């Protein structure tokens, strides 16, 4: 008899409501023996977890969590490791694959995508990312701040819509205001800005404003917030942001 073949799913569960999680993600969880994740994310999917072996891990322990998941899957278990939003966007997919690569592991790994904060936040304030957009995290925990500044400048100079993840954290309170100082060098003060806290989950709250006034909301912005800064064509209509796709350049309507 051969040992049952293990498998490791790296799952993006979306913003936190079950109806915004993919069917593939739900199936992977129902197949799994072990579910590994941090307490907040596991709480969002609590109703799917009965009968599963649960391993709760805390933020900052991602490397240990990834190693443990690979070890369990290598031992013949079906394991799901959970990320919020999409697992490949500032999520667990990267570190799990890096460690599997380092160990030259043969374990089967499948990344299951999810609704990322950019899509979730955008949907609550209209269509702000309907043209080219750049996603930039303001967290300088794992990326040097100089690189973040360079990316902000380049994206703003190229008139990208800019989606900011991790605009603040407990220890980094000034990153958002420093970011806006850079953005203001390249984008006009009248460009729309959407600030979305807890998109598509309990506690959702949105603000639509402009670059000029965005810093008035500095205190509102926290680690559960995504900020979307428009391009030169973005406009506000009935408290929503529209970034045109470009149909107006080709058609009369
Ligand atoms: N993998 C996640 C992102 C992790 S980085 C994803 O794909 O969504 C964490 C950052 O994501 C937060 O600081 C915040 O900027 C953003 N975020 C995640 N979920 C969010 C939500 N529901 N509403 C607003 N922002 C969110």
- What is the CATH-assigned architecture of the largest domain? 2-Layer Sandwich
How much of the sequence lies in strands comes to: 15-25%
The portion of residues assigned to helices is 25-40%
Low-confidence stretches: none
Mean pLDDT: 96
| Ligands, deduplicated | S-adenosyl-L-homocysteine
Overall description:
This protein is α/β, with parallel strands linked by helices and 253 residues long. It folds into 2 domains: 7-115, 3-Layer(aba) Sandwich (Cobalt-precorrin-4 Transmethylase, domain 1), CATH 3.40.1010.10; 118-242, Methyltransferase, Cobalt-precorrin-4 Transmethylase, Domain 2 (2-Layer Sandwich). It is built from 7 helices and 13 strands. The chain has helices at 23-31, 39-44, 62-74, 92-102, 117-124, 145-157, 175-186; strands at 7-12, 34-38, 53-57, 78-83, 108-112, 126-127, 133-137, 161-165, 192-197, 205-210, 225-229, 235-237, 240-242. The strands form 3 sheets. The chain has a 5-stranded parallel beta sheet, with helices on both faces. It has a 5-stranded mixed beta sheet with strand order 7-8-11-9-10, sandwiched between helices. Strand 12 (235-237) and strand 13 form a beta hairpin. The structure holds S-adenosyl-L-homocysteine. S-adenosyl-L-homocysteine (SAH) binds at residues 15, 83-86, 89-91, 116-117, 120-121, 165-167, 196, 198-201, 223-226.
């Amino acid at each position: 008899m051969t040992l049952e073949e293990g498998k490791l799913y790296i799952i993006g569960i979306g913003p936190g409501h079950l109806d915004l999680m993919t069917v593939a993600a739900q199936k992977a969880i129902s197949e799994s023996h072990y579910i590994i994740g941090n307490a907040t994310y596991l709480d969002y999917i609590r109703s799917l977890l009965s009968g599963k072996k649960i391993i709760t891990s805390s933020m900052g322990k991602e490397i240990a969590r990834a190693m443990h998941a690979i070890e369990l899957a290598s031992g013949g278990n079906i394991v799901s490791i959970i990320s919020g939003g999409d697992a490949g966007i500032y999520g667990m997919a990267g570190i799990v694959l890096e460690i599997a690569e380092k160990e030259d592991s043969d374990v089967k790994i499948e990344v299951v995508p999810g609704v990322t904060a950019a899509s979730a936040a955008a949907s609550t304030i209209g269509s702000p990312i309907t043209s080219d957009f750049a996603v930039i995290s303001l967290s300088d925990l794992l990326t040097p701040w100089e690189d973040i500044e360079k990316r902000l400048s380049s994206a703003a100079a190229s008139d990208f819509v800019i989606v900011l993840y991790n605009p603040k954290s407990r220890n980094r309170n000034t990153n958002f205001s420093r970011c806006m100082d850079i953005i203001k060098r390249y984008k006009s003060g009248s460009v729309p800005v959407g600030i979305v806290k807890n998109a598509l989950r309990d506690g959702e709250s949105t603000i639509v404003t402009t670059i000029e006034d965005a810093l008035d909301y500095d205190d509102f912005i926290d680690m559960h917030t995504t900020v979307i800064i428009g391009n030169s064509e973005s406009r506000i209509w009935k408290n929503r942001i529209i970034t045109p796709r470009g149909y107006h350049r080709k058609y009369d309507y």
